[in-house]
Design goal:
The protein is an all-alpha fold. The chain is 58% helix and 3% strand. The protein contains five helices and two strands; from the N terminus they run αββαααα. The protein has a two-stranded antiparallel ribbon. A hairpin with a 6-residue loop joins β1 and β2.
C-alpha cells in the first residue's frame, strides 16, 4: 500500500507542477504576445508558425531556394515555411500578383488570394480566387515546387 501511495503522490505532484508550468507559460505568452518562459529553465522561446500548405519538406526547400535567390529570404533551407519564408513570398506577391497586405509573414486570405492568382496564371490552378488554400491551391503549388 505504501508503494502505491508514493506512486500516486509522485504522479499527482508531477501533474500539478506540469499544470502550473503550462498555465504560467500560457499566461506569459498571452501577456507579451512575443515570448514564453520555459518551465525548466530561463530560456525565452519565440513562437514561429510553420505553414507548408501541403508541401513536403523537399518541395518547401525548393520554394525557399527560389525565395532566397530572388526575394530576400535569409533563413535556412530547411523545408519549414515559417514567418521569414512567408515574408519573402509576400514580397514576391506584392511585386507581381496584387498582394496589398503587410509584409508580416502571416499566411492570411490576402496572401492566399495572391498565391492563387499566380498559380492560376502559371501553374494550372482552376479554382476560385477565394483566399482558401484548399486541395486545388495546394496541388498547383506542388506542381510549381516539383517543376
Amino acid at each position: 500500500m505504501r508503494t502505491v501511495t508514493r506512486a500516486f503522490i509522485g504522479a499527482t505532484t508531477a501533474i500539478a507542477i506540469a499544470g502550473g508550468g503550462v498555465a504560467a507559460a500560457g499566461t506569459a505568452f498571452a501577456a507579451t504576445g512575443q515570448t514564453t518562459q520555459a518551465v525548466a529553465g530561463s530560456t525565452a522561446v519565440t513562437p514561429q508558425a510553420v505553414v507548408n500548405l501541403g508541401l513536403n519538406a523537399t518541395q518547401a526547400k525548393k520554394l525557399q531556394r527560389d525565395l532566397k535567390n530572388n526575394w530576400g529570404y535569409k533563413g535556412a533551407i530547411d523545408g519549414q515555411l515559417g514567418t521569414d519564408s512567408w515574408k519573402a513570398m509576400q514580397r514576391f506577391l506584392k511585386a507581381n500578383w496584387g498582394y496589398t497586405g503587410a509584409i508580416d509573414g502571416i499566411v492570411g486570405s490576402g496572401t492566399v488570394k495572391a498565391i492563387q492568382r499566380w498559380l492560376k496564371a502559371n501553374w494550372g490552378y482552376t479554382g476560385a480566387i477565394d483566399g482558401v488554400a484548399g486541395p486545388g491551391t495546394q496541388a498547383a503549388l506542388k506542381r510549381y515546387c516539383n517543376s
